[in-house]
Every structure is written in structure tokens, then in C-alpha cells.
């Protein structure tokens, strides 16, 4: 009891241990994923490996090979599996920021459900377009 | 003299609120963290007046308001009344209003808190009565103006009783090791749990008035030496806050044994010694 | 002869942040009968792992069963799959798994000790222990990239390596933490009001522990010597000088001291592991799908964890079954409450360190 008494008295005259606002995160903190389209070869390994399904590719209508990358920062669990699975290093990079909180006006869920539906539908249209191109 | 005491009693909720804000800041610094701002109790007051008050029944809410009014009346009686012993009994009346409010609801936590509050009253009030008797014995008057202008310094004649009084302050203020009636982790606030909105604000403010009540009684032990009185008040509060941060919570049986077995004999011994030595 | 009160120690309570519900019938504040109810946070994780996730994604799902024993769950699952598919992981990966595992154990035990002090009404000690726990959280953040959900073990090894600069940052922090823990141990052994509050309360005798099958620090505080790190050889604890901690009294104070002493043992094991890391890679490549069944018993911070895995050649598992340590300890908890005053209920409950999100996955 006396030790804690003296400890409290000593703490009264020292600085508090609270970290002030705006302290930076340490290096190599796991955060969001950034995508660079120049080196991507559209193998879709990142989409197969992601545990919560935060990466989805949608297909363009003209049947070309350049797919469109969609990433949901609110579903991501920052595990880094996509970075490790990508065969071309430098395409997917993990940075140190985390996602800011979303409000109801951003509609994060509704927009993502539309992306999921569009991925399924646009794949059929894309496969049709590719078959036509091959038969030509 | 009477004018100063009257204004002090009128402003006592505000001064009590500032002391409570200071206590939270000190407590946070002792635990090595930043605390809330000093004006936090007043921000709480404004927030609580904004909330919608859900009443259980009207008797319960009436007891909440009665607790606050009776406590403020007790402070008035202490500061401008004729007799400080009457002020102590009015203080007991205020606590009994609170206890009656706690018993009138069917919530188990509220009833258990009210039962424990009765144990607090039984343990702490006799020593306050003994303190009033001690002030009479050493200065010769029951009146507050007589004590504040007398020649003798009461603490020099009654040191043991002052120690017993300082150790009773945790029981009155409900701080560790004797915060049993509002044991936050066991019965979640005790008898004050069913109040909400404005009625909770009344109970919250009545607790600030306890600081003023105890502060004035401790100040009187300095007699006409106002500097000594202020020093005693500051030292008492600092000691109680340090003790709050250095002990756990004990049980009711231990509190009763401590108050009636150790503190009361100490106070009684001091009074008999002074009375016989006269 | 007083009136009988029914007091709910309900699923929402200030003292325990866990959703477990007790209904006590008390008479003059002495408890006469108890009824227990849990299962409020059932999320269906086992079913999800059998239908929706591939077996390589399951470590990330299973780590989210519990917040405080996340590393243990993921490591146990990876060990189960590795024993099923006969994969041999490199030595460096084993040492790295021990390092993160022991750090997880330290921060979980410190959290339990702080929580118990707060329930006793001693807020200053709670703040002090949490401040000391920040040292371990910083170490975890630098090594794995996040404070609690480490996402560190995968099938075939670990994800990140311990480089030289990380070693330079970790060493002084661990020394500082060890010094502070020795001071804490002195306070817990000698404080007057804590001993009045905790000694002789909630006693579990050796026969009770054997009859109701207690696991973890609860069993070791009563004298029952059961510890999976000593009984099984999945990770090299014997080389790193690990010794079991046993106390004989079995009350709330003994359970607290078991956790504190285990923290000190963990720091010693951790320092030995960091100083003697063998060279090599940290991962081996995994091909194919699991086929067959495997059973693993491993030591989470709260006791023994059991994983049963069954695969049939597809990339999605056929059956996954988890038995968590708090589930084994609930029958003993229920036995202890009879004829105790109600004032001791939070202390007894929190001294078991319940983790209900594991029990009702």
C-alpha cells in the first residue's frame, strides 16, 4: 500500500504518459493496398487469394484483355496475401495508412453489392465478345 | 462575517463543482494519464439538462430532488445557523431521503445500494457528532462565528480526533477503501442507478455539496487562524485522494469494525482526556 | 432469515465485458443458487470454414475467433494442417512462431491481471499494468505490423521476418518490461488490502480440479500439473529453458500470481529465442489439398485448445472443430459460487479470465 502511495505522489509531478494527437505509426505498419496498373498482367491471383473478397475485377464490354480493378478498403483485413501472391512485384503495394471511417452517406455497402453484381454480369458479356472475336 | 458566509453558502454548488473537477484532474495525474478538463462537472450539468428524464414513479424522483435541497439546506445551516450540531443532523436527513428513494424502486441494485448506504451512515455520522462536541469543548461555543473568532486553536488540543476525522472522510465521500455503497463494479452505482436526466443531475450536484460540508468542518479545526485552516483542508483532501489511488475496496463488515472499533474509541479517548484535564 | 433476491449478473455488465449471463438467487447477500447461460456471440465460424473459405484462407478467419488469443488459434490450425499433409517447416519459422506466441501470452496475461485489479476497486494498479503492457504492444506492432490481429502464421511457416533493425528496437524494450514486471510482482505479493480481498476466496481444491477437468492457469494454481507445451513437442520449448509454474493454494490470489509468474517465464523464453535465432528461410511452398484427419492440442493463454481437421481432397475442408479453454472451465466456475457473498462474484469470475467469444464461436 505504501509503495503505491509513493508512486501516486511521484506521478503527480511527472508528465502524463498519454501519446499526443498526431503521433505517427511505426514503419512497416500493415495498411491499405495501392494498385499500379502498368505492371499488372491480369492473372487474377489476388482475387482468388483474398480471404474476405475485397478485390474484384470487372470486365470491359469490348472483349479486350484490360480488366478493371475494384478494391474495397472497408472489407480489407490488411493481411497482405494479395501482395505475396502477385507474380509481378510492384503492382500491389501495402502502405501505412488505414481507411478513414465511412458514414451512411458514402453508401459503402450498396456500392460494393453493385460491383459484385456487375462482375458476374459483365463476365458473360465479355465472354460473348471474346468468342465473336475468335470466330471472326 | 455573516455576509461572507451567506454568499459562500449561496455559491456552494459551484465551488463544490470546481473541487470535484480538480479531484478528477489530480486523480488522472496520479495515474499517469491526462485527465478531463477542470470544468467537466459543469459540462456534464449542461448535457444532463438536455436529456429526456425517464421517471420510475414520482416518489422516487421527488426523493432525488429532496436529497439535493436538503443537502444545500444543511450547508446553509452549517454556515449561517446557530448550532453546528443541528447542521450535522440535517446532513443525516439528506442522506436518509436518498436512501428512501433507493428503497422505493424494485431494482435489486438500487435496494442493495440503499442497504449499504445505511451502513455508511451508521459508520460515519457518530464521528462527526464527536467532532462538533470537540469544537465546543475547546472553543466554548456551538456557533460557527464563535468558533471562527475564538482564541484557542482546536487542533492543538484534539490531534487524535482530527486523525479519526481525516480517516472518516473516505467513508463520507465514498472513495476507496470505503466506496462500498456505489461499488461501480459490483452493483453499478447503487441507489443512484435509476435516476436519469434532471433528477440524476440533482443527485450528482448533491454529491458536490459533501465536499463543502466536510471542508468547512475541517476548516473549523484551525480556529481563528485562517491560514492554518486552509492548509488543513488542502492536506486532508490531498491525503484522501492519494489514499483513493492506493487501496482496493473493502467489505461492509470491515468498515463497521474499523469505524466503531478503532476510530470511535480514539475520538472518545481524546474527548475524555480534554474534559477531565480541564 | 431474509428475503430472497434474484440478482442478474447479466450479459451486459460493467465488471465483465463478456456476454455471459448468471442469475443468482441471494439471501442476505449470500448466494444460494446459480444458473448459467452463454452463446450470445455465436457467429457460425466453423460452418463458414466448411463452406465458404479455402483451406489456405482459414488461418485468417480462425484468428478472428478471439481477440486476445488470436495468434494461438492461427498457429494451432496451421500445425494441424501441417501434421495432416506432412509438411516440415524450417527451424527459423519455429523460433519465430514461439516469439510471437509468447508475446501474445504476455499481453493477454497482463490484460487479465489489470482487469482483476480494476474489479477489486484498485484503479491505479489497473492503469499501471496497462501502461506496462504498452511495451509489449509496441514490440508486436513493430514485428508483425499490427497490435493484436497479427496475421503472422500461415501454412508452411510465417509471413514476416525479424531483421537486424527490428532486433535493435526490441531488445531495450524487453529489458525495460522485465524490470517493471519484477516491481509489479513485489506489489502483488505484499499489498495489504489486496491480500485482504483475494486470499482465501474462491478456493478450488486439487480434487475439484481433477473432477471437473480444469485447464490452464486455473488448474496450475491448484496444483494440477497440466501444460501442453511440456507434454507435446510441436515447438522447441525445452531448448529454450521453459519451466511450468505451480501454486498450491487455489484461490483468487494464487491464480493471479500464476499468470504473473508465467509472464516472467515467457520473457525469459522470448529473450533466449531472440538471441539464438537460427538462419534459414521462413516459409516452404505448399501444394495440393488436405486428405484425412488430424487432432492437435495446444496451449492458448487461457488453457488447452483442441483442433480437429478433416479433409477429403477438395480445397474446402470437410470438418473443422474447435474446443476452447473457457468452455472447459465453466463447470468449475459454477461450483464455486455456492455460499459466497455477492460482493465476491466479480473477483471470482474475472480470476478465471473468461473469453466468451471463443466459447461461442
Notable features of this structure?
heterotrimer, A: 136 residues, alpha+beta, Alpha-Beta Plaits, 35% helix, elongated, C: 361 residues, Cytochrome-c3 Hydrogenase, chain B, 3-stranded antiparallel β-sheet, 14 helices, 8 strands, nickel (chain C), oxidoreductase activity, acting on NAD(P)H (chain C), iron (chain C), NiFe-Hase_large (chain C)
Topology at a glance:
The complex is a heterotrimer of chains A (136), B (278) and C (361).
Chain A: H1 2-11, E1 33-35, H2 45-49, E2 55-58, E3 68-71, H3 81-85, E4 92-94, H4 108-135
Antiparallel strand pairs in A: 1-4, 2-3
Chain B: H1 2-10, H2 12-30, H3 40-50, H4 58-80, H5 84-103, H6 108-139, H7 144-148, H8 154-157, H9 159-173, H10 198-220, H11 226-244, H12 252-277
Helix pairs in contact in B: 1-4, 2-10, 3-10, 4-5, 4-10, 5-6, 6-9, 6-12, 9-10, 9-11, 9-12, 10-11
Chain C: E1 4-9, E2 21-27, E3 30-37, H1 45-51, H2 58-62, H3 70-85, H4 91-119, H5 123-144, E4 153-154, E5 157-158, H6 164-190, H7 192-198, H8 206-212, H9 217-220, H10 228-231, H11 252-275, E6 291-300, E7 303-312, E8 319-323, H12 325-336, H13 345-351, H14 356-359
Antiparallel strand pairs in C: 1-2, 2-3, 4-5, 6-7, 7-8
Helix pairs in contact in C: 3-4, 4-5, 4-11, 4-13, 5-6, 6-11
General description of the model:
Chain B: InterPro entries: ComplexI_Subunit1, NADH_UbQ_OxRdtase_su1/FPO. Chain B: This is NADH-quinone oxidoreductase subunit H. The complex is a heterotrimer of chains A (136), B (278) and C (361). With 136 residues, chain A is an alpha+beta fold. Chain A is built from four helices and four strands, in the order H-E-H-E-E-H-E-H. Chain A is elongated, with a radius of gyration of 23 Å. The longest helix of chain B is centred in the middle third of the chain and has 32 residues, at 108-139. The two termini of chain B are 31 Å apart. Chain B is globular, with a radius of gyration of 19 Å. Chain C has one domain (4-359): Cytochrome-c3 Hydrogenase, chain B, CATH 1.10.645. Chain C contains 14 helices and eight strands. The N and C termini of chain C lie far apart (43 Å). The model of chain C has no long low-confidence stretch (mean pLDDT 86).
